[in-house]
Amino acid sequence: MVEYRIDELAQSAGTTVRNIRSYQDRGLLPPPRLRGRVGLYDDAHLARLRLIGQMLERGYTLANISDLVAAWEAGRDVGAVLGLEQVLTDPWTDEIPGWATYEELVAAFGLDTAPDEIEERLRRAVELGLVEPDGDRFRVPSPRLLHVGAELVAGGVPLEAVLEIADEIRRDCEVIANRFVDLVDTHVLKDADLLGADAGRVSEVIRRMRPLVQMVVNPFVARGMEQRVRAELGDKLEVLMAEERADGRVGDPAV
DNA sequence: TTTCTTACA
DNA sequence: TGTAAGTA
């Protein structure tokens, strides 16, 4: 088990010792295990600090984060929380900037097919809003989304299938988003005057809902995938891992 | 030396 | 959020 002393933890998380103590006082960070007088922190603390840091960067206040953490922990399952923080804080190498050239897109998605086929894929990507043509370049509204697509392609999923499922997932997410909006609408806002005196409250609710939805959806998606993977690929995976061990290899996972 | 608490700005 | 004093 990896353990950090407070100074090491602060460095790893890109914050300061002072802030860690501050977060602890506010209940944003669980207390460390104690050995004598010194606190020992682990990866869960590091993940939490990264989550806090990311949310602060996005403009949320400590009070906002505190509310969300409290809300989440009120109905949590320990394993799911750890999984959630893992998902939310996993660093992803974002080699694709908010803008990409035609050549960069072709390279990122390994498009070595016929030119007319490339045009077709690109047309579809534009249609889905994944990239937007702008002069001789393309604007990438969500580099992270594009990165996921590139990862899938690198993993052997045909780009055609990636684009297809991107559209399906977008529709599914719209359904989820609408459910949350309906929920708040019927239970919180009720017959509030959206354009009048309650506008501030409405925007506050909306502002707080965004990360909440992300926090709720992430573990469900992770759990759903885990179940499917276990059910359909479990045996194959076991065989592959057994072969890995037999070969005495460490890395080079067979995706 | 480092950690921790408390306090002040 | 940074800094400082006094401890363990």
Automatic annotation (TrEMBL):
GO terms assigned for molecular function: DNA binding; DNA-binding transcription factor activity
Keywords per UniProt: DNA-binding
Pfam families, per database record: MerR_1
Origin species: Actinocorallia herbida
Tagged with keyword DNA-binding: yes
Descriptive protein name: MerR-like DNA binding protein
Residue stretches spanning the membrane: none
Domain HTH merR-type: residue ranges: 3-71
Xref: CDD domains: HTH_MerR-like_sg2
InterPro entries per the UniProt record, alphabetical: DNA-bd_dom_put_sf, MerR-type_HTH_dom, MerR_fam
